[in-house]
Write a structure and sequence with these properties.
- This protein is 53% helix and 7% strand.
- Strands 1-2-3 form a 3-stranded antiparallel sheet.
- By secondary structure, it is mainly alpha-helical.
- It is elongated, with a radius of gyration of 39 Å.
- It is built from 6 helices and 3 strands, in the order ααββαβααα.
- This is Thioredoxin domain-containing protein.
Length: 169
């Protein structure tokens, strides 16, 4: 059903309770798509699905849809529930599996305000990294002078070694 709080849904809930008391071997429950959207999507319920939709779920990964009784019209809902139960007991069902999360479903779930927050966060982090990594202006000649001073010292030392070697001859 679309919404558990809706007046039409409350009438259907009363009919389901009456059917449950007459069929004690089955467990009846209902789910409002507005309240439990992710759960309802597992049973192929989308915005285009005609609601209320009836299925038989074994509690695991399989569920059954009764041929010709997938949904309930607003008129004479009690007899439609009875036809659904008869079809289930006679075995005119289609076995389906609960659909798990898919890539397309994941992408669709990202679209919205969360996507905007993620994009703003990523842009802010990139701007922060660029600000931190900006190079400071180079000091002209500071490094060159240090390199030149150390190389002149080593040249002077090598000259002294050569001179002392000359004196020995």
């Amino acid at each position: 059903m679309e919404d558990e709080a809706d007046e039409k849904s409350k009438e259907l809930i009363k009919l389901l309770k009456a059917a449950a008391s007459a069929n004690r071997d089955l467990l009846f429950c209902y789910v409002g798509v507005k309240q439990w959207e992710d759960f309802a999507e597992s049973f192929e319920v989308t915005k285009k699905t005609k609601l209320p939709k009836m299925i038989v779920w074994d509690g695991n990964e399989d569920y059954f849809s009764v041929v010709g009784s997938e949904s309930i019209d607003e008129e004479d809902q009690g007899s439609q529930i009875t036809r659904f139960l008869q079809g289930y007991r006679e075995g005119s069902v289609i076995q389906k599996q609960i659909s798990g999360p898919s890539l397309i479903g994941y992408i669709n779930s990202l679209i919205g305000i969360r996507t905007v927050y993620i994009i703003v966060f990523v842009v802010a982090v990139i701007m922060l990294i660029q600000t931190i990594n900006k190079e400071e202006p180079l000091r002209v000649g500071t490094r060159d002078q240090v390199d030149h001073a150390s190389s002149s010292t080593s040249q002077a030392e090598s000259r002294e070694v050569h001179r002392s070697g000359d004196k020995e001859d």
